Amino acid sequence: MTPAMILLITFTHYPAIQTIINSFFSTARGRRKSVFIGWDNYQTLLQDDVFWKVLINNFWYAVWTIPLSIVLSLAMALWVNDKLKGRGFLRMAYFTPTVLPLIAVANIWLFFYTPGFGLIDQIRGLFGLAEQNWMGSPDTALYAMIAVAIWKEAGFFMIFYLAALQTISPTLREAASIEGASKFYYFHRVLFPLLMPTTLFVSINAVINSFRLVDHIFVMTEGGPNNASSLLLFYIYKVAFDYWDTAYAATLTVVMIALLIFLAIGQFFFFDRRVHYK
Amino acid sequence: MFRPTLTLNYDRVLNTLAAWLLALFWLLPLAYAGWTAFHPAEYETRFVPFAPLTLENFAQAWSEAPFARYFLNTMILVTGILAAQFTLCTLAAFSFARFTFPGRNILFALVLIQLLVMPDILIVENYQTMRRLDLIDTIAAIGLPYVASAFGIFLLRQTFMTIPKELDEAARIEGCSYLGILWRVYIPLAKPTFLAYGLVSVSHHWNNFVWPLIITNSVETRPLTVGLSIFAVTDAGIQWSVINAATLMTSGPLLIAFLLFQRQFVQSFMRAGIK
Protein backbone atom coordinates (compact mmCIF):
# COMPACT_ATOMS: atom_id res chain seq x y z
CA MET A 1 0.00 0.00 0.00
CA THR A 2 2.97 2.34 0.38
CA PRO A 3 3.41 2.69 -3.40
CA ALA A 4 -0.26 3.58 -3.76
CA MET A 5 0.09 6.21 -1.07
CA ILE A 6 3.20 7.68 -2.66
CA LEU A 7 1.48 8.05 -6.02
CA LEU A 8 -1.63 9.45 -4.41
CA ILE A 9 0.41 12.02 -2.54
CA THR A 10 2.45 12.92 -5.62
CA PHE A 11 -0.54 13.42 -7.87
CA THR A 12 -3.33 14.53 -5.56
CA HIS A 13 -2.22 15.98 -2.24
CA TYR A 14 1.06 17.52 -3.27
CA PRO A 15 -0.37 19.26 -6.34
CA ALA A 16 -3.41 20.41 -4.40
CA ILE A 17 -1.24 22.05 -1.75
CA GLN A 18 1.25 23.32 -4.29
CA THR A 19 -1.60 24.89 -6.23
CA ILE A 20 -2.63 26.85 -3.18
CA ILE A 21 0.97 27.98 -2.57
CA ASN A 22 1.47 28.95 -6.21
CA SER A 23 -1.64 31.06 -6.18
CA PHE A 24 0.24 33.48 -3.89
CA PHE A 25 3.22 33.78 -6.23
CA SER A 26 3.70 35.45 -9.58
CA THR A 27 4.36 33.48 -12.76
CA ALA A 28 8.04 33.14 -13.62
CA ARG A 29 8.66 34.56 -17.06
CA GLY A 30 12.02 34.37 -18.80
CA ARG A 31 14.65 35.61 -16.36
CA ARG A 32 12.13 37.05 -13.95
CA LYS A 33 11.75 34.67 -11.06
CA SER A 34 8.49 33.82 -9.39
CA VAL A 35 8.07 36.02 -6.29
CA PHE A 36 5.64 36.10 -3.41
CA ILE A 37 2.86 38.56 -4.17
CA GLY A 38 0.31 37.78 -1.48
CA TRP A 39 -3.30 38.19 -2.57
CA ASP A 40 -2.47 39.90 -5.86
CA ASN A 41 -3.66 37.00 -7.99
CA TYR A 42 -6.95 37.00 -6.14
CA GLN A 43 -7.24 40.74 -6.71
CA THR A 44 -6.73 40.17 -10.43
CA LEU A 45 -9.33 37.43 -10.30
CA LEU A 46 -11.95 39.71 -8.80
CA GLN A 47 -11.38 42.22 -11.57
CA ASP A 48 -11.19 39.65 -14.35
CA ASP A 49 -14.37 39.98 -16.41
CA VAL A 50 -13.71 36.71 -18.16
CA PHE A 51 -13.54 34.91 -14.84
CA TRP A 52 -16.94 36.21 -13.78
CA LYS A 53 -18.39 35.42 -17.16
CA VAL A 54 -17.06 31.87 -17.01
CA LEU A 55 -18.25 31.44 -13.44
CA ILE A 56 -21.75 32.52 -14.38
CA ASN A 57 -21.67 30.22 -17.40
CA ASN A 58 -20.62 27.36 -15.17
CA PHE A 59 -23.43 28.23 -12.79
CA TRP A 60 -26.02 27.94 -15.57
CA TYR A 61 -24.34 24.83 -16.88
CA ALA A 62 -24.75 23.25 -13.45
CA VAL A 63 -28.27 24.57 -12.94
CA TRP A 64 -29.46 22.95 -16.16
CA THR A 65 -27.44 19.76 -16.37
CA ILE A 66 -27.76 18.56 -12.78
CA PRO A 67 -31.55 18.48 -12.32
CA LEU A 68 -32.35 17.59 -15.92
CA SER A 69 -29.97 14.68 -16.11
CA ILE A 70 -31.17 13.39 -12.73
CA VAL A 71 -34.84 13.57 -13.68
CA LEU A 72 -34.21 11.97 -17.06
CA SER A 73 -32.07 9.22 -15.59
CA LEU A 74 -34.74 8.44 -13.02
CA ALA A 75 -37.40 8.26 -15.74
CA MET A 76 -35.16 6.00 -17.80
CA ALA A 77 -34.52 3.71 -14.86
CA LEU A 78 -38.23 3.47 -14.06
CA TRP A 79 -39.05 2.64 -17.67
CA VAL A 80 -36.33 0.05 -18.06
CA ASN A 81 -37.22 -1.49 -14.70
CA ASP A 82 -40.90 -1.51 -15.59
CA LYS A 83 -40.88 -4.36 -18.13
CA LEU A 84 -41.95 -2.20 -21.04
CA LYS A 85 -41.74 -3.63 -24.54
CA GLY A 86 -38.18 -3.88 -25.79
CA ARG A 87 -36.53 -2.95 -22.51
CA GLY A 88 -33.24 -4.49 -23.62
CA PHE A 89 -33.18 -2.11 -26.55
CA LEU A 90 -34.20 0.83 -24.37
CA ARG A 91 -31.46 0.14 -21.87
CA MET A 92 -28.91 -0.14 -24.65
CA ALA A 93 -30.06 3.10 -26.26
CA TYR A 94 -29.91 5.07 -23.02
CA PHE A 95 -26.57 3.72 -21.95
CA THR A 96 -24.68 3.96 -25.25
CA PRO A 97 -23.61 7.61 -24.91
CA THR A 98 -21.77 6.66 -21.72
CA VAL A 99 -19.32 4.37 -23.51
CA LEU A 100 -18.65 6.76 -26.39
CA PRO A 101 -15.79 9.24 -26.07
CA LEU A 102 -17.23 12.70 -25.46
CA ILE A 103 -14.72 14.14 -27.88
CA ALA A 104 -15.98 11.81 -30.63
CA VAL A 105 -19.66 12.48 -30.11
CA ALA A 106 -18.87 16.19 -30.05
CA ASN A 107 -18.01 15.82 -33.74
CA ILE A 108 -21.41 14.36 -34.46
CA TRP A 109 -23.27 16.99 -32.47
CA LEU A 110 -21.21 19.63 -34.21
CA PHE A 111 -22.81 18.53 -37.41
CA PHE A 112 -26.29 18.62 -35.90
CA TYR A 113 -25.77 22.24 -34.97
CA THR A 114 -24.14 23.41 -38.19
CA PRO A 115 -26.15 26.37 -39.48
CA GLY A 116 -28.22 25.68 -42.59
CA PHE A 117 -26.57 22.39 -43.42
CA GLY A 118 -26.93 20.64 -40.06
CA LEU A 119 -29.67 18.22 -39.12
CA ILE A 120 -31.50 20.51 -36.70
CA ASP A 121 -31.72 23.28 -39.25
CA GLN A 122 -32.81 20.83 -41.93
CA ILE A 123 -35.70 19.77 -39.72
CA ARG A 124 -36.50 23.40 -38.93
CA GLY A 125 -36.42 24.04 -42.66
CA LEU A 126 -39.23 21.52 -43.16
CA PHE A 127 -41.41 23.71 -40.98
CA GLY A 128 -40.29 26.84 -42.77
CA LEU A 129 -38.22 28.16 -39.86
CA ALA A 130 -35.16 30.30 -40.43
CA GLU A 131 -31.60 29.12 -40.11
CA GLN A 132 -30.08 29.39 -36.69
CA ASN A 133 -26.40 29.49 -35.80
CA TRP A 134 -26.63 27.47 -32.59
CA MET A 135 -22.96 27.53 -31.68
CA GLY A 136 -22.08 30.88 -33.16
CA SER A 137 -24.59 32.94 -31.29
CA PRO A 138 -23.82 33.94 -27.69
CA ASP A 139 -27.43 33.28 -26.67
CA THR A 140 -27.53 29.64 -27.61
CA ALA A 141 -23.91 28.40 -27.55
CA LEU A 142 -23.96 27.51 -23.85
CA TYR A 143 -27.29 25.70 -24.17
CA ALA A 144 -25.97 23.72 -27.10
CA MET A 145 -23.17 22.52 -24.81
CA ILE A 146 -25.64 21.77 -22.01
CA ALA A 147 -27.72 19.53 -24.28
CA VAL A 148 -24.66 17.45 -25.16
CA ALA A 149 -23.66 17.08 -21.51
CA ILE A 150 -27.13 15.90 -20.47
CA TRP A 151 -27.27 13.45 -23.34
CA LYS A 152 -23.90 12.09 -22.30
CA GLU A 153 -24.41 11.60 -18.58
CA ALA A 154 -28.10 10.71 -18.11
CA GLY A 155 -27.62 7.08 -19.16
CA PHE A 156 -24.76 6.71 -16.74
CA PHE A 157 -26.86 7.91 -13.81
CA MET A 158 -29.70 5.64 -14.93
CA ILE A 159 -27.52 2.67 -14.02
CA PHE A 160 -27.29 3.74 -10.40
CA TYR A 161 -31.04 4.21 -10.13
CA LEU A 162 -31.61 0.89 -11.84
CA ALA A 163 -29.35 -0.83 -9.36
CA ALA A 164 -31.25 0.77 -6.49
CA LEU A 165 -34.68 -0.04 -7.94
CA GLN A 166 -33.81 -3.70 -8.20
CA THR A 167 -33.14 -3.90 -4.49
CA ILE A 168 -36.65 -2.61 -3.70
CA SER A 169 -38.99 -5.45 -2.92
CA PRO A 170 -42.04 -5.82 -5.22
CA THR A 171 -44.22 -6.54 -2.18
CA LEU A 172 -44.15 -2.80 -1.44
CA ARG A 173 -45.85 -2.10 -4.73
CA GLU A 174 -48.45 -4.82 -4.16
CA ALA A 175 -49.14 -3.49 -0.70
CA ALA A 176 -49.57 0.01 -2.08
CA SER A 177 -51.96 -1.09 -4.80
CA ILE A 178 -54.04 -3.10 -2.33
CA GLU A 179 -54.28 0.03 -0.20
CA GLY A 180 -55.51 1.81 -3.30
CA ALA A 181 -52.54 4.11 -3.67
CA SER A 182 -52.21 5.68 -7.08
CA LYS A 183 -49.10 5.19 -9.14
CA PHE A 184 -48.02 8.72 -8.46
CA TYR A 185 -48.64 8.40 -4.74
CA TYR A 186 -46.60 5.20 -4.64
CA PHE A 187 -43.72 6.91 -6.41
CA HIS A 188 -43.91 10.04 -4.34
CA ARG A 189 -44.31 8.41 -0.93
CA VAL A 190 -42.55 5.06 -1.27
CA LEU A 191 -40.17 4.85 -4.18
CA PHE A 192 -38.65 8.29 -4.13
CA PRO A 193 -37.78 8.32 -0.41
CA LEU A 194 -36.22 4.87 -0.78
CA LEU A 195 -34.12 6.16 -3.66
CA MET A 196 -32.77 9.12 -1.68
CA PRO A 197 -29.29 7.68 -0.99
CA THR A 198 -28.92 7.09 -4.72
CA THR A 199 -30.12 10.59 -5.49
CA LEU A 200 -27.48 11.96 -3.14
CA PHE A 201 -24.77 9.90 -4.78
CA VAL A 202 -25.91 10.77 -8.29
CA SER A 203 -26.24 14.45 -7.53
CA ILE A 204 -22.72 14.65 -6.11
CA ASN A 205 -21.49 13.00 -9.27
CA ALA A 206 -23.52 15.43 -11.34
CA VAL A 207 -21.98 18.37 -9.50
CA ILE A 208 -18.47 17.04 -10.12
CA ASN A 209 -19.36 16.47 -13.78
CA SER A 210 -20.66 19.99 -14.16
CA PHE A 211 -17.10 21.14 -13.53
CA ARG A 212 -15.34 18.32 -15.30
CA LEU A 213 -17.26 17.67 -18.53
CA VAL A 214 -15.60 20.16 -20.85
CA ASP A 215 -14.17 17.90 -23.58
CA HIS A 216 -16.81 18.81 -26.14
CA ILE A 217 -16.07 22.51 -25.80
CA PHE A 218 -12.61 21.95 -27.25
CA VAL A 219 -14.09 20.65 -30.49
CA MET A 220 -17.36 22.50 -30.72
CA THR A 221 -16.90 26.12 -29.72
CA GLU A 222 -13.52 26.58 -28.01
CA GLY A 223 -15.39 28.60 -25.43
CA GLY A 224 -16.66 31.06 -27.99
CA PRO A 225 -18.21 33.23 -29.19
CA ASN A 226 -16.66 35.77 -26.86
CA ASN A 227 -16.47 33.26 -23.97
CA ALA A 228 -20.21 32.64 -24.14
CA SER A 229 -19.76 28.88 -23.76
CA SER A 230 -16.53 28.78 -21.77
CA LEU A 231 -16.50 26.93 -18.45
CA LEU A 232 -14.18 27.16 -15.47
CA LEU A 233 -12.01 24.14 -16.26
CA PHE A 234 -11.75 25.18 -19.89
CA TYR A 235 -10.68 28.65 -18.83
CA ILE A 236 -8.05 27.16 -16.50
CA TYR A 237 -6.74 25.17 -19.45
CA LYS A 238 -6.61 28.34 -21.56
CA VAL A 239 -4.83 30.39 -18.93
CA ALA A 240 -2.32 27.67 -18.12
CA PHE A 241 -1.49 26.28 -21.54
CA ASP A 242 -2.33 29.05 -24.01
CA TYR A 243 -1.22 32.10 -22.03
CA TRP A 244 1.20 30.15 -19.78
CA ASP A 245 0.16 32.12 -16.73
CA THR A 246 0.48 29.19 -14.33
CA ALA A 247 0.18 31.20 -11.14
CA TYR A 248 -3.14 32.66 -12.21
CA ALA A 249 -4.30 29.25 -13.38
CA ALA A 250 -3.42 27.95 -9.92
CA THR A 251 -5.55 30.69 -8.39
CA LEU A 252 -8.47 29.66 -10.58
CA THR A 253 -7.94 26.03 -9.61
CA VAL A 254 -8.08 26.96 -5.93
CA VAL A 255 -11.42 28.67 -6.50
CA MET A 256 -12.72 25.61 -8.32
CA ILE A 257 -11.63 23.17 -5.62
CA ALA A 258 -13.11 25.42 -2.95
CA LEU A 259 -16.41 25.51 -4.85
CA LEU A 260 -16.42 21.74 -5.27
CA ILE A 261 -15.78 21.08 -1.59
CA PHE A 262 -18.32 23.68 -0.56
CA LEU A 263 -20.98 22.20 -2.83
CA ALA A 264 -20.27 18.62 -1.81
CA ILE A 265 -20.53 19.46 1.88
CA GLY A 266 -23.60 21.56 1.19
CA GLN A 267 -25.28 18.62 -0.49
CA PHE A 268 -24.62 16.34 2.44
CA PHE A 269 -26.32 18.78 4.76
CA PHE A 270 -29.14 19.46 2.32
CA PHE A 271 -29.90 15.77 1.90
CA ASP A 272 -29.09 14.78 5.45
CA ARG A 273 -32.61 15.09 6.79
CA ARG A 274 -34.12 13.55 3.68
CA VAL A 275 -31.97 10.47 3.32
CA HIS A 276 -33.19 7.36 5.08
CA TYR A 277 -30.50 4.77 5.24
CA LYS A 278 -31.70 1.26 5.63
CA MET B 1 -60.32 1.19 -5.59
CA PHE B 2 -59.11 -0.58 -8.69
CA ARG B 3 -58.79 1.50 -11.73
CA PRO B 4 -60.42 0.09 -14.87
CA THR B 5 -58.09 -1.87 -17.15
CA LEU B 6 -58.65 0.57 -19.97
CA THR B 7 -56.93 3.48 -18.20
CA LEU B 8 -54.16 1.17 -17.08
CA ASN B 9 -53.40 0.19 -20.65
CA TYR B 10 -53.68 3.76 -21.76
CA ASP B 11 -51.14 4.74 -19.14
CA ARG B 12 -48.86 1.93 -20.21
CA VAL B 13 -49.04 2.78 -23.90
CA LEU B 14 -48.20 6.38 -23.15
CA ASN B 15 -45.20 5.36 -21.06
CA THR B 16 -43.95 2.95 -23.69
CA LEU B 17 -44.29 5.59 -26.33
CA ALA B 18 -42.38 8.17 -24.31
CA ALA B 19 -39.66 5.67 -23.46
CA TRP B 20 -39.21 4.74 -27.11
CA LEU B 21 -39.19 8.33 -28.30
CA LEU B 22 -36.48 9.19 -25.82
CA ALA B 23 -34.49 6.09 -26.80
CA LEU B 24 -34.65 6.95 -30.49
CA PHE B 25 -33.63 10.50 -29.74
CA TRP B 26 -30.73 9.18 -27.66
CA LEU B 27 -29.55 6.98 -30.51
CA LEU B 28 -30.01 9.63 -33.16
CA PRO B 29 -26.45 11.01 -33.11
CA LEU B 30 -24.97 7.55 -33.41
CA ALA B 31 -27.39 6.47 -36.12
CA TYR B 32 -26.64 9.60 -38.02
CA ALA B 33 -22.88 9.08 -37.76
CA GLY B 34 -23.39 5.54 -38.99
CA TRP B 35 -25.39 6.77 -41.95
CA THR B 36 -22.83 9.28 -43.17
CA ALA B 37 -19.84 7.07 -42.49
CA PHE B 38 -21.12 4.22 -44.66
CA HIS B 39 -22.44 6.30 -47.53
CA PRO B 40 -20.74 8.51 -50.11
CA ALA B 41 -20.52 12.20 -49.28
CA GLU B 42 -23.45 13.19 -51.52
CA TYR B 43 -25.82 11.42 -49.16
CA GLU B 44 -24.73 13.34 -46.07
CA THR B 45 -28.07 15.05 -45.73
CA ARG B 46 -30.19 13.08 -48.19
CA PHE B 47 -31.74 10.10 -46.53
CA VAL B 48 -32.64 7.85 -49.43
CA PRO B 49 -33.43 4.28 -48.39
CA PHE B 50 -31.21 2.56 -50.94
CA ALA B 51 -28.24 4.88 -51.12
CA PRO B 52 -25.10 2.99 -52.13
CA LEU B 53 -22.99 1.71 -49.26
CA THR B 54 -19.26 2.31 -49.13
CA LEU B 55 -16.24 1.82 -46.92
CA GLU B 56 -14.34 4.53 -48.75
CA ASN B 57 -14.70 7.03 -45.88
CA PHE B 58 -12.99 4.68 -43.46
CA ALA B 59 -10.16 4.02 -45.87
CA GLN B 60 -9.68 7.73 -46.41
CA ALA B 61 -9.67 8.56 -42.69
CA TRP B 62 -7.28 5.71 -41.99
CA SER B 63 -4.83 6.90 -44.64
CA GLU B 64 -4.97 10.60 -43.77
CA ALA B 65 -3.95 10.33 -40.13
CA PRO B 66 -1.79 7.82 -38.22
CA PHE B 67 -4.74 6.10 -36.61
CA ALA B 68 -2.91 2.79 -36.38
CA ARG B 69 -0.36 4.41 -34.12
CA TYR B 70 -3.06 6.15 -32.10
CA PHE B 71 -4.79 2.82 -31.59
CA LEU B 72 -1.57 1.27 -30.38
CA ASN B 73 -0.98 4.16 -27.97
CA THR B 74 -4.46 3.90 -26.54
CA MET B 75 -4.11 0.14 -26.13
CA ILE B 76 -0.80 0.51 -24.31
CA LEU B 77 -2.22 3.27 -22.15
CA VAL B 78 -5.39 1.43 -21.20
CA THR B 79 -3.76 -1.91 -20.42
CA GLY B 80 -0.89 -0.24 -18.58
CA ILE B 81 -3.20 1.76 -16.37
CA LEU B 82 -5.39 -1.25 -15.71
CA ALA B 83 -2.49 -3.51 -14.72
CA ALA B 84 -0.99 -0.86 -12.45
CA GLN B 85 -4.35 0.00 -10.90
CA PHE B 86 -5.16 -3.62 -10.17
CA THR B 87 -1.83 -4.19 -8.44
CA LEU B 88 -1.71 -1.00 -6.40
CA CYS B 89 -5.37 -0.71 -5.51
CA THR B 90 -5.59 -4.38 -4.50
CA LEU B 91 -2.65 -4.08 -2.13
CA ALA B 92 -3.89 -0.81 -0.68
CA ALA B 93 -7.45 -2.05 -0.33
CA PHE B 94 -6.26 -5.25 1.36
CA SER B 95 -4.31 -3.37 3.97
CA PHE B 96 -7.18 -0.98 4.64
CA ALA B 97 -9.62 -3.86 4.94
CA ARG B 98 -7.63 -6.30 7.04
CA PHE B 99 -4.92 -4.58 9.06
CA THR B 100 -5.25 -2.15 11.89
CA PHE B 101 -2.49 0.40 12.15
CA PRO B 102 -2.25 3.84 13.70
CA GLY B 103 -3.77 6.57 11.57
CA ARG B 104 -5.64 4.16 9.32
CA ASN B 105 -8.83 6.18 9.27
CA ILE B 106 -7.05 9.46 8.58
CA LEU B 107 -5.12 7.81 5.80
CA PHE B 108 -8.30 6.40 4.31
CA ALA B 109 -9.94 9.81 4.47
CA LEU B 110 -6.93 11.19 2.61
CA VAL B 111 -7.50 8.58 -0.08
CA LEU B 112 -11.15 9.50 -0.41
CA ILE B 113 -10.28 13.15 -1.03
CA GLN B 114 -9.32 12.08 -4.51
CA LEU B 115 -12.93 11.21 -5.28
CA LEU B 116 -13.66 14.92 -5.13
CA VAL B 117 -10.37 16.54 -6.10
CA MET B 118 -9.59 14.44 -9.14
CA PRO B 119 -6.44 14.49 -11.27
CA ASP B 120 -8.63 15.96 -14.04
CA ILE B 121 -8.78 19.20 -12.10
CA LEU B 122 -5.15 19.43 -11.02
CA ILE B 123 -3.85 19.69 -14.57
CA VAL B 124 -1.72 22.76 -14.00
CA GLU B 125 0.35 21.41 -11.13
CA ASN B 126 0.56 17.86 -12.46
CA TYR B 127 2.04 19.26 -15.64
CA GLN B 128 4.81 20.92 -13.59
CA THR B 129 5.46 17.65 -11.78
CA MET B 130 5.76 15.76 -15.05
CA ARG B 131 8.19 18.36 -16.29
CA ARG B 132 10.35 17.92 -13.22
CA LEU B 133 10.24 14.16 -13.69
CA ASP B 134 11.11 14.70 -17.35
CA LEU B 135 8.09 12.69 -18.44
CA ILE B 136 6.38 15.21 -20.73
CA ASP B 137 5.12 13.57 -23.90
CA THR B 138 5.28 9.98 -22.68
CA ILE B 139 2.50 7.47 -22.36
CA ALA B 140 3.50 6.88 -18.74
CA ALA B 141 2.76 10.52 -17.97
CA ILE B 142 -0.81 10.16 -19.25
CA GLY B 143 -1.46 7.27 -16.90
CA LEU B 144 0.54 8.02 -13.74
CA PRO B 145 -1.84 10.49 -12.04
CA TYR B 146 -4.68 7.97 -12.37
CA VAL B 147 -2.89 4.85 -11.21
CA ALA B 148 -3.51 5.20 -7.49
CA SER B 149 -7.25 5.42 -7.90
CA ALA B 150 -9.34 6.27 -4.85
CA PHE B 151 -12.39 4.79 -6.52
CA GLY B 152 -10.57 1.48 -7.03
CA ILE B 153 -9.22 1.37 -3.50
CA PHE B 154 -12.62 2.19 -2.08
CA LEU B 155 -14.49 -0.33 -4.21
CA LEU B 156 -12.08 -3.19 -3.50
CA ARG B 157 -11.94 -2.39 0.20
CA GLN B 158 -15.73 -2.61 0.41
CA THR B 159 -15.64 -5.98 -1.32
CA PHE B 160 -12.77 -7.32 0.79
CA MET B 161 -14.57 -6.33 3.98
CA THR B 162 -17.51 -8.56 3.10
CA ILE B 163 -15.26 -11.61 3.00
CA PRO B 164 -15.57 -13.51 6.31
CA LYS B 165 -12.48 -13.35 8.50
CA GLU B 166 -12.76 -17.07 9.27
CA LEU B 167 -11.61 -17.81 5.75
CA ASP B 168 -8.30 -16.10 6.14
CA GLU B 169 -7.81 -17.46 9.64
CA ALA B 170 -8.24 -20.92 8.19
CA ALA B 171 -5.74 -20.13 5.47
CA ARG B 172 -3.27 -18.78 8.03
CA ILE B 173 -3.49 -22.01 10.02
CA GLU B 174 -2.72 -23.88 6.83
CA GLY B 175 0.49 -21.84 6.73
CA CYS B 176 -0.42 -19.25 4.14
CA SER B 177 1.41 -15.91 4.14
CA TYR B 178 -0.53 -12.63 3.92
CA LEU B 179 0.22 -12.29 0.25
CA GLY B 180 -0.79 -15.90 -0.22
CA ILE B 181 -4.12 -15.23 1.46
CA LEU B 182 -4.66 -12.21 -0.73
CA TRP B 183 -3.85 -14.20 -3.84
CA ARG B 184 -5.69 -17.44 -2.99
CA VAL B 185 -8.68 -16.19 -1.00
CA TYR B 186 -9.42 -12.53 -1.55
CA ILE B 187 -8.73 -12.00 -5.22
CA PRO B 188 -10.71 -15.05 -6.44
CA LEU B 189 -13.68 -14.04 -4.31
CA ALA B 190 -13.60 -10.46 -5.55
CA LYS B 191 -13.56 -11.38 -9.23
CA PRO B 192 -16.86 -9.66 -10.12
CA THR B 193 -15.63 -6.44 -8.54
CA PHE B 194 -12.42 -6.63 -10.52
CA LEU B 195 -14.38 -7.12 -13.70
CA ALA B 196 -16.64 -4.19 -12.89
CA TYR B 197 -13.80 -1.92 -11.96
CA GLY B 198 -11.82 -3.01 -15.02
CA LEU B 199 -14.64 -2.10 -17.39
CA VAL B 200 -15.17 1.26 -15.73
CA SER B 201 -11.47 2.01 -15.86
CA VAL B 202 -10.96 0.93 -19.47
CA SER B 203 -13.90 2.93 -20.78
CA HIS B 204 -12.88 5.95 -18.73
CA HIS B 205 -9.31 6.03 -19.96
CA TRP B 206 -10.19 5.15 -23.52
CA ASN B 207 -12.38 8.25 -23.54
CA ASN B 208 -10.22 10.59 -21.49
CA PHE B 209 -9.19 13.72 -23.35
CA VAL B 210 -8.08 16.89 -21.58
CA TRP B 211 -5.07 15.55 -19.68
CA PRO B 212 -3.68 13.54 -22.64
CA LEU B 213 -4.13 16.62 -24.81
CA ILE B 214 -1.98 18.66 -22.45
CA ILE B 215 0.75 16.17 -21.79
CA THR B 216 1.34 14.77 -25.29
CA ASN B 217 2.59 16.51 -28.38
CA SER B 218 3.72 13.86 -30.81
CA VAL B 219 2.22 11.07 -32.87
CA GLU B 220 4.15 8.48 -30.87
CA THR B 221 2.30 9.21 -27.64
CA ARG B 222 -1.09 10.63 -28.56
CA PRO B 223 -4.08 8.48 -27.72
CA LEU B 224 -7.04 8.13 -30.08
CA THR B 225 -9.15 10.87 -28.55
CA VAL B 226 -6.45 13.50 -29.00
CA GLY B 227 -5.59 12.17 -32.45
CA LEU B 228 -9.22 12.40 -33.49
CA SER B 229 -9.60 15.96 -32.26
CA ILE B 230 -6.55 17.03 -34.24
CA PHE B 231 -7.80 15.21 -37.30
CA ALA B 232 -11.21 16.83 -37.08
CA VAL B 233 -9.92 20.35 -36.49
CA THR B 234 -6.84 20.82 -38.65
CA ASP B 235 -8.29 20.07 -42.05
CA ALA B 236 -11.29 22.29 -42.43
CA GLY B 237 -11.69 20.89 -45.94
CA ILE B 238 -12.32 17.35 -44.77
CA GLN B 239 -15.77 16.03 -45.46
CA TRP B 240 -18.20 15.20 -42.72
CA SER B 241 -18.51 11.65 -43.88
CA VAL B 242 -14.78 11.12 -43.37
CA ILE B 243 -14.78 12.76 -39.94
CA ASN B 244 -17.74 10.64 -38.92
CA ALA B 245 -15.98 7.53 -40.17
CA ALA B 246 -13.00 8.44 -38.01
CA THR B 247 -15.33 9.13 -35.10
CA LEU B 248 -16.92 5.72 -35.38
CA MET B 249 -13.54 4.11 -35.78
CA THR B 250 -12.20 5.55 -32.53
CA SER B 251 -15.26 4.59 -30.53
CA GLY B 252 -15.69 1.34 -32.47
CA PRO B 253 -13.86 -1.21 -30.34
CA LEU B 254 -15.47 0.02 -27.15
CA LEU B 255 -18.88 0.19 -28.80
CA ILE B 256 -18.65 -3.32 -30.25
CA ALA B 257 -17.42 -4.69 -26.95
CA PHE B 258 -20.34 -2.95 -25.28
CA LEU B 259 -22.92 -4.33 -27.69
CA LEU B 260 -21.54 -7.86 -27.39
CA PHE B 261 -21.27 -7.89 -23.61
CA GLN B 262 -24.11 -5.51 -22.93
CA ARG B 263 -25.56 -7.42 -20.04
CA GLN B 264 -22.24 -7.87 -18.25
CA PHE B 265 -21.35 -4.27 -18.96
CA VAL B 266 -24.48 -2.81 -17.45
CA GLN B 267 -24.41 -5.23 -14.55
CA SER B 268 -20.84 -4.45 -13.67
CA PHE B 269 -21.50 -0.73 -13.80
CA MET B 270 -24.41 -1.43 -11.50
CA ARG B 271 -22.23 -3.42 -9.16
CA ALA B 272 -19.68 -0.63 -9.14
CA GLY B 273 -22.46 1.76 -8.25
CA ILE B 274 -23.86 -0.08 -5.25
CA LYS B 275 -22.13 1.19 -2.16
Question: What this model shows, in words?
Answer:
The complex is a heterodimer of chains A (278) and B (275). Chain A is 72% helix and 0% strand. Chain A contains 13 helices and no strands. The longest helix of chain A is centred in the first third of the chain and has 33 residues. Chain A is globular and about 80 Å long. Chain B is an all-alpha fold and 275 residues long. Chain B has 2 domains: 50 residues, no CATH class; 209 residues, MetI-like fold (Orthogonal Bundle). In chain B, 75% of the residues lie in helices and 0% in strands. The longest helix of chain B has 34 residues. Chain B is globular, with a radius of gyration of 24 Å. The two termini of chain B are 38 Å apart. At the A-B interface, helix 1, helix 3, helix 4, helix 5 and helix 7 of A face helix 1, helix 3, helix 4, helix 5 and helix 6 of B.
The CATH superfamily of chain A is identified as MetI-like
Rg from Cα of chain A:
23 Å
* Main sheet makeup of chain A: none
Stretches of chain A where pLDDT is under 50 for at least 5 consecutive residues are none
Indicate the multimeric state: heterodimer
CATH architecture of chain A: Orthogonal Bundle
